[in-house]
């Protein structure tokens, strides 16, 4: 298959829809489904049928971002301008006839959700460019917006070395949290002697408070497959696995369907797009273990073992799944690949900061007005994300801290909110990018209790293989528990700080090494709250 | 010449064993399909009992210790039967900040069960989860597979009461 053939197909699919005067898009990602999006979709479909055949189309689409206002419905009229859609919030099935009856220029005012607010206007969408626009279950829909063109381009017009060059030039860094340069990782695996190699997509989004990968998988699953296939071509792999959490049944379902459809259409399989390149993808389900987000534990889990990490080196690039060279990247990393191939690495490198290129998807949650999913260029100040895009703290309360990086990250106080967000700036604050969860806390949150919460998490998620983590998290949790109850002494606090250092320095894998981070960062910025709890003093 | 290991007979004529067998066959009875197989046992039977663990171990030619090790390592696998209804309270960070603790306390108080336990009449199991990914709707619970967002103890308990 040539690029021209695919472009022709895409044009054909777009033409088929040319007669549609009104397109109604209903968010059917998990969050809106929980708010009742499916009955809304059905009601709109029947209202559409009674409006007149063929002139309108109602479709389910992926995440539109503003989860707290779900179910969200977007209406695009040809008469006005198809690209300028109206957004309705908190839609119920009873609203369907009214929405369908409304005409261009006279929307249903009471349901309107302004799209010129900063939450939407300040975003720059690369990873989520199709999210909320295309039907995730439709391969045609993906092709119509230019899907799989990057894969065909790579296979027919580029050598694997060309692909590696573009990805390296893009400056893309691993979006799973580590921030390892993607081009470098790919090149290492490509240099390994030919033979069996694997590509793994890490979709074991275990950080509590993070739902970016889930939204990408549920909104645009083909893009992940396309990114994986391009990666496999570049490094010389023929087999891929997507390791997804079993807690994400909808994502698994959509991904399974996407794999089946891509296979049938020849974008996966023995001869991808009629070339000599072969690539198969299989799904592997997680089973509820946070540590399986660590790459060596993840591979153990794919091999059917307990998800326990092993020491590195050897790194997976050298000896990974079943001892073969293995490329592991996060969902969001793979989602960035197709645009990089399409627009070029230099284009991608022009976005973001010196050390962190491109955009980052963040999941805003906690005590914040606009909870949901956003994508902003790297380097956007934290204050803009929280106060402008996120709309600030509800109920007139005061901001206290924002937690990034999940159980491996830390809390950032008000004083540092003006920092531009990228991998390196967050590290200097004692936290990390992590996968992109941002939990906002207001003045009612007790930071000692927050530290205890994360330590409890790490304690119960510790795999038990190495002693510093297994015993250390247990001891630290005990100390934090004593402290939160106001029964701790100054000696307890000192012991806690010692333990943090020991566990950080001596644990086997990332889980243990970073488990002290929430404690260290809260101690750094909110030490007064710990002090106030000592000897039975009352805390805020 | 080595013969392939003999497959054990199905533990009973319960049709659900055929589903489990199908999963193992699809994966060529490979040992690395253990987690997939346990998932299918749990989907079919609701939990993993000793009979099923022994059957899976024998079928995949794995030591029982390894099968038991995997079954107990992963949180999702249950070794005890669940009640007719399940209420999973999300204890992820966003839900914690927004009051998941109060939801658990509400259920504990009303039914007298702790997380991981089932009521004496086998009606309801209370479970917790590490983030169900519905952070935009925090605090969230999953009742019989359906995610309910923005919950409070005084809305959750009546919902649970309405379950048959």
TrEMBL record, chain A:
Which ranges of the sequence are coiled-coil? none
Keyword Transmembrane among record annotations: no
Task: Could you list this entry's UniProt keywords, alphabetically sorted.
Answer: 4Fe-4S, Iron, Iron-sulfur, Metal-binding
Q: Return any one Pfam family short name.
A: SLBB
**Keyword Calcium on entry:** no
NADH-ubiquinone oxidoreductase 51kDa subunit iron-sulphur binding domain mapped to chain residues = 448-493
Supply the InterPro entries for this chain. Answer: NADH-UbQ_OxRdtase_51kDa_CS, Nuo51_FMN-bd, Nuo51_FMN-bd_sf, Nuop51_4Fe4S-bd, Nuop51_4Fe4S-bd_sf, Soluble_ligand-bd, Thioredoxin-like_sf
> What are the names of the required cofactors?
[4Fe-4S] cluster; FMN
Q: Which PROSITE patterns match?
A: COMPLEX1_51K_2
Gene Ontology molecular function, alphabetical: 4 iron, 4 sulfur cluster binding; FMN binding; metal ion binding; NADH dehydrogenase (ubiquinone) activity
Query: Which superkingdom is the protein from?
Result: Bacteria
Which PANTHER family does the protein's record reference?
A: NADH-QUINONE OXIDOREDUCTASE SUBUNIT F (PTHR43578)
Which family, according to UniProt? Belongs to the complex I 51 kDa subunit family.
Q: What is this protein called?
A: NADH-quinone oxidoreductase subunit F
Q: What is the lineage of its organism?
A: Bacteria, Pseudomonadati, Pseudomonadota, Gammaproteobacteria, Chromatiales
TrEMBL record, chain B:
- Signal peptide from the UniProt entry: none
Task: Return the CDD domains for the record.
Answer: TRX_Fd_NuoE (cd03064)
Alphabetically, the GO molecular function entries are: 2 iron, 2 sulfur cluster binding; DNA binding; metal ion binding; oxidoreductase activity
For this UniProt record, the keywords arranged alphabetically read as follows: 2Fe-2S, Homeobox, Iron, Iron-sulfur, Metal-binding
Which residues are recorded as binding [2Fe-2S] cluster? 90, 95, 131, 135
Q: Which residues form a coiled coil?
A: none
**Stored Pfam families:** 2Fe-2S_thioredx
Q: Which cofactor does it need?
A: [2Fe-2S] cluster
Family of this protein: Belongs to the complex I 24 kDa subunit family.
This chain belongs to which protein, by name?
A: NADH-quinone oxidoreductase subunit E
The species this protein belongs to is Allochromatium palmeri
Tell me the lineage of the source organism: Bacteria, Pseudomonadati, Pseudomonadota, Gammaproteobacteria, Chromatiales
């Amino acid at each position: 298959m040539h690029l021209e053939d695919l472009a022709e197909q895409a044009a054909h699919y777009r033409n088929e829809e040319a007669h549609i005067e009104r397109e109604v898009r209903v968010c059917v990602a998990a969050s809106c489904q929980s708010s009742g999006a499916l009955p809304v979709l059905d009601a709109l479909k029947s209202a559409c049928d009674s409006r007149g055949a063929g002139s309108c189309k109602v479709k389910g689409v992926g995440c539109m971002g503003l989860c707290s206002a779900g179910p969200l419905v977007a209406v695009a009229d040809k008469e006005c301008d198809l690209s300028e859609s109206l957004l309705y919030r908190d839609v119920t099935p009873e609203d369907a006839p009214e929405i369908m009856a409304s005409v261009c220029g006279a929307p249903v005012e009471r349901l309107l959700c302004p799209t010129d607010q900063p939450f939407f206007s300040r975003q720059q969408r690369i990873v989520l460019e199709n999210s909320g626009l295309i039907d995730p279950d439709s391969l045609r829909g993906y092709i119509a917006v230019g899907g799989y063109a990057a894969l065909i381009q790579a296979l027919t017009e580029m050598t694997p070395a060309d692909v590696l060059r573009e990805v390296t030039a893009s400056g893309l860094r691993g979006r799973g949290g580590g921030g390892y340069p993607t081009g470098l990782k790919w090149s290492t695996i490509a240099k390994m002697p030919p033979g069996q190699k694997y590509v793994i997509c890490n979709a074991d989004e275990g950080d509590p408070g993070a739902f970016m990968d889930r939204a990408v998988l549920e909104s645009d699953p083909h893009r992940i497959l396309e990114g994986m296939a391009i990666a496999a071509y570049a490094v010389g792999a023929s087999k891929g696995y997507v390791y997804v959490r079993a807690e994400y049944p909808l994502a698994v379902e959509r991904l399974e369907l996407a794999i089946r459809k891509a296979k049938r259409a020849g974008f996966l399989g023995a001869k991808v797009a009629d070339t000599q390149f072969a690539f198969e993808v299989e799904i592997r389900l997680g089973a509820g273990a946070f540590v399986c987000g660590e790459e060596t534990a993840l591979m153990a889990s794919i091999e059917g073992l307990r998800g326990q990490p092993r020491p590195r080196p050897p790194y997976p690039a050298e000896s990974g799944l079943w001892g073969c060279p293995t490329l592991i990247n996060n969902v969001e990393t793979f989602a960035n690949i197709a645009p990089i191939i399409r627009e070029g690495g230099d284009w991608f490198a022009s976005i973001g900061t010196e050390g962190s290129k491109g955009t980052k998807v963040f999941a805003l949650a906690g005590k914040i007005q606009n909870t949901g999913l956003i994508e902003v260029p790297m380097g956007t100040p934290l204050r803009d994300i929280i106060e402008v895009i996120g709309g600030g703290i509800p109920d007139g309360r005061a901001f206290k801290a924002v937690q990034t990086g999940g159980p491996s990250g830390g809390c950032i106080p008000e004083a540092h909110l003006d920092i531009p967000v990228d991998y390196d700036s967050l590290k200097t604050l004692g936290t990390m990018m992590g996968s992109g969860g941002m939990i906002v806390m207001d003045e009612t949150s007790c930071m000692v209790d927050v530290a205890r919460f994360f330590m409890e998490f790490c304690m119960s998620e510790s795999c038990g293989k190495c002693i510093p983590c297994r015993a250390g998290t247990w001891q630290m949790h005990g100390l934090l528990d004593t402290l939160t109850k106001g029964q701790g002494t100054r000696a307890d606090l000192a012991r806690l700080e010692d333990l943090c250092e020991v566990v950080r320095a001596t644990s086997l894998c990332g889980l243990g090494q970073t488990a002290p981070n929430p404690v260290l960062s809260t101690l750094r910025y909110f030490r007064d709250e710990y002090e106030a709890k000592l000897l039975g003093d009352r805390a805020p | 010449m080595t013969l392939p290991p003999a497959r054990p007979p199905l533990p009973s004529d319960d049709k659900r064993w055929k589903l489990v067998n199908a999963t193992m066959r699809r994966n060529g009875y490979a040992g690395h399909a253990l987690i997939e197989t346990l998932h299918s046992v749990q989907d079919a039977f609701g939990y993993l009992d000793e009979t099923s663990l022994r059957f899976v171990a024998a079928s995949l030619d794995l030591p029982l210790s390894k099968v038991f090790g995997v079954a107990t390592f992963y949180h999702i696998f249950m070794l005890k039967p669940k009640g007719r209804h399940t209420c999973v309270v999300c204890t992820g960070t966003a839900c914690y900040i927004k009051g998941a603790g109060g939801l658990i306390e509400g259920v504990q108080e009303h039914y007298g069960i702790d997380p991981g336990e089932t009521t004496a009449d086998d009606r309801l199991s209370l479970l917790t989860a590490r983030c169900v990914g519905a952070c935009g709707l925090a605090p969230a619970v999953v009742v019989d597979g359906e995610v309910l967002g923005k919950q409070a103890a005084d809305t959750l308990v009546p919902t649970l009461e309405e379950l048959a």
